Amino acid sequence: MIIFTSYSNQKFDILNKHKVFLRKEEVEEAIKSPDQVKKQNKYFGATKDGIKVIYKKEDEIIKVITFFPVK
């Protein structure tokens, strides 16, 4: 199960103000089938199709902390 923190939900509006439009499905896809994953302490960073997602695993729950576009 993938859940979004309140900040990560707000991040969609923040990016929209800067003319960057991402959908939840794109963020979830970056987690489910990433091109690259790096682990740092208790957080993971998944990258796919120009999106980087920072998330944390807690048992069966994946909690999205933040996400942003990358080149």
In short:
The chain is of the alpha+beta class. It is 30% helix and 44% strand.
Q: Could you please describe the fold and organization of this structure?
A:
- The chain has 71 residues and is α+β, with helices and mostly antiparallel strands.
- The chain has a single domain (2-69), classed as 2-Layer Sandwich (YaeB-like fold), CATH 3.30.2310.
- The protein has helices at 6-17, 24-32, and strands at residues 2-4, 36-40, 43-48, 51-58, 61-69.
- A five-stranded mixed sheet has the order 1-5-4-3-2.
- A hairpin with a 2-residue loop joins β3 (43-48) and β4 (51-58).
- The protein is globular, with a radius of gyration of 11 Å.
- The model has no long low-confidence stretch (mean pLDDT 97).
| N-to-C order of helices and strands | EHHEEEE
First CA to last CA: what distance?
Answer: 28 Å
CATH architect. name: 2-Layer Sandwich
Roughly what is the average pLDDT, rounded to an integer? 97
Spans of at least 5 consecutive residues with low confidence? none
Strand count, sense and closure of the main sheet? 5 strands, mixed
Question: By helix and strand content, what is the structural category?
Answer: alpha+beta
CATH domain topology: YaeB-like fold
Overall, the morphology is: globular
- Give the class-level CATH name: Alpha Beta
**Largest sheet, spatial ordering of strands:** 1-5-4-3-2
Count of discrete structural domains:
1
Topology:
Elements: E1 2-4, H1 6-17, H2 24-32, E2 36-40, E3 43-48, E4 51-58, E5 61-69
Parallel strand pairs: 1-5
Antiparallel strand pairs: 2-3, 3-4, 4-5
